[in-house]
Design brief:
Length: about 200
């Protein structure tokens, strides 16, 4: 079982790596053992550095296999194609990892968008350093849960047909500062002066 899991992870890694490189090597068609239903091909995952990318692909592979999703080579035929994007940003001193998975149907129309954000700690010089194993597992789990729900029942209603948001904590917001009735604040005056 462990060998099958590692083989599956290696195959998914190869698929995603092929999506992020200029090589045009041919990948054999993949299907998870026991998987059935529509096939899914990961065309690319853009944004993270190689180490984070590799760990994310391992977690996506594990989650897809656990949900018996049928994965196909990006060069082969697939019912759905996925393009992923990750970004690290620092908000009020804390690093947040945001992600989007766009799922396209046979007609190359976006059928689903999965969006999420994970708040991490202080990343120091490298904001990607907060993307630890636990965070990547949460990203993979939320993404594959939503993708599996969609491919098993694409007609099921979602809150917004264009976007399915994975559960993610909202960043804490500062309460709005009360403004004086007398006029704009110093920052607003500075902005008005600079725009002239």
């Amino acid at each position: 079982m462990r060998t099958l899991s590692r083989g599956f992870a290696a195959a998914l890694l190869t698929l995603c790596a092929a999506g992020c490189s200029e090589t045009t090597s041919s990948n054999a068609s993949l299907t998870a053992q026991g998987a059935s239903g529509p096939t899914i091909a990961f065309d690319s995952i853009d944004g993270p550095p190689v180490g984070v990318f590799n760990r994310l692909v391992d977690n996506l592979s594990t989650e897809a296999q656990g949900r018996q999703l049928a994965l196909a080579s990006r060069e082969g035929a697939a019912n759905y194609r996925v393009r992923g994007y990750l970004a690290a940003q620092v908000i009020r001193g804390r690093t947040h990892i945001s992600w989007v998975l766009d799922v396209y149907d046979d007609d190359k129309l976006r059928a689903l968008r999965i969006v999420g954000e994970e708040a991490g700690g202080r990343g120091g010089a490298d904001p990607w350093s907060v993307a630890d194993e636990a965070m990547l597992r949460r990203i993979a789990r939320a993404s594959m849960e939503r993708l599996a729900a969609f491919v098993t029942n694409p007609a099921a209603p979602v809150a917004d047909p264009a976007t399915a948001v994975a559960d993610a904590p909202e960043p804490a917001r500062r309460p709005a500062r009360r403004r004086s009735v007398e006029g704009p604040s110093a920052a607003e005056r500075l902005a008005l002066t600079a725009s002239r």
